[in-house]
Design brief:
351 residues; alpha/beta; Type Iii Antifreeze Protein Isoform Hplc 12; 2 domains; 8-stranded parallel beta sheet
Length: 351
């Protein structure tokens, strides 16, 4: 499987999971809060802070007919144009936010939603790009992003296998092989029952790329499970406090929750470890509590060893249990006291 490089980090099998904190609308219209989120994400263990680069006009049109109304769900009753007006991150902030991320030592990433936002992010000299699930079918946009020759992390929520194939082809046809695919359930919030994380594993096999999870569920079960199944990237929405009203707060993690998730992810990856058999360092002191062959009655020199006077018991100071049948019927070459671990040289064949 290919690996890709983002800054000084490699993403892919065998590398530490790359954790992205998605700010999205959680700044709630405040530049100061946006900067605070960057600091809190770093302190919570995120590797990267992610923004979204759009305006209402780059996503849709200002129209009130029924096509542009959201009927139900988290944003039920909203008009698309008005919702995006509440949620977007002003472009004039983004250079300053990128500098703030560099100051605190966290990677900066954004999702462009049209060609002008790609051009804008190029002017900021971003290192890599995110493609959102809803833009998976916008092949012209994907081709344009890929043409910049930078790594791409692409979510695949709602995508059929054919649609994902088309999007991957668009990236590769642009001469770009630096791609990560994220499994995503595009519901807000999502439920873990709909994650189907085995699909993530299948994408890795089908497309030969690193994979991960863009997780809109509450809690960290999905993220930690994804890591156990091979996720190289985890993306989660991040806020300072869900009480700060904005379109994304209800399905975002606060710093305490995010920090615990990162700890669980790191521990899960350590638990996966490597293929290794035998005694671990931690187990060394307990190996003596295995079973071995002991004399359980006093045995005189010349007396036969029988099922009555020797047994396989704990602890493990005697001969290995696999020799038990071989030893039965042999005679003691010395007196052996009850409670003595049986050793080679204490017995022999009867003459």
């Amino acid at each position: 499987m290919n690996r890709i490089r983002v800054g000084n980090r490699e993403l892919g099998a065998g590398c530490p999971t790359y954790v992205i904190a998605e700010m999205s609308a959680n700044h709630a219209g405040s530049l100061a809060r946006a900067k605070e989120i960057i600091h809190a994400a770093k302190e919570s263990g995120a590797d990267c802070i992610k923004l979204q680069t759009y305006t209402p006009d780059t996503l849709t049109i200002d129209c009130d007919n029924s096509y542009f109304q959201i009927a139900d769900g988290t944003w039920g009753g909203e008009n698309l144009y008005q919702l995006y007006g509440k949620a977007y991150t002003p472009w004039e902030w983004q250079g300053e936010l990128k500098e703030e991320a560099a100051r605190v030592g966290i990677d900066f990433l954004s999702t462009p939603f049209d060609w002008t936002s790609v051009d804008f992010l190029e002017s900021l000299d971003v290192d890599f790009y995110k493609v959102a699930s809803f833009e998976l079918v916008d092949l012209p946009l994907i081709s344009y992003v890929a043409s910049k020759g930078k790594p791409i992390i692409m979510s695949t929520g709602m995508g059929s296998l054919g649609e994902i194939e088309d999007a991957v082809k668009a990236v590769r046809d642009a001469g770009n092989e630096q791609l990560v695919l994220l499994r995503c359930a595009s519901a807000y919030p999502a439920i873990t029952d709909d994650m189907n994380l085995k699909t993530m594993q299948n994408m890795a096999q089908v497309f030969d790329v690193p994979v991960g999870l863009s997780d809109h569920s509450m809690g960290s079960v999905g993220a930690v499970t994804a890591v156990a199944l091979g996720a190289s990237v985890i993306e989660k929405h991040f806020c300072l406090d869900r009480a700060i009203e904005n379109p994304d707060a209800s399905f975002s993690m606060n710093p305490q929750e995010f920090s615990q998730m990162v700890k669980d992810i790191r521990q899960a990856q350590r638990a996966l470890g490597c293929v290794r058999y035998g005694v671990t360092e931690q187990e060394k002191s307990n190996i003596v509590f295995r079973r071995s062959i002991f004399c359980v009655q006093d045995v005189k020199k010349g007396e036969k060893l029988t099922e009555e006077n020797i047994r396989i018991i704990r602890p493990g100071y005697g001969m290995a249990p696999k020799y038990y049948k071989q030893v039965l019927g042999q005679v003691a070459l010395q007196d052996i006291a009850r409670g003595t671990p049986l050793q080679f040289g204490m017995m022999g064949e009867e003459k």
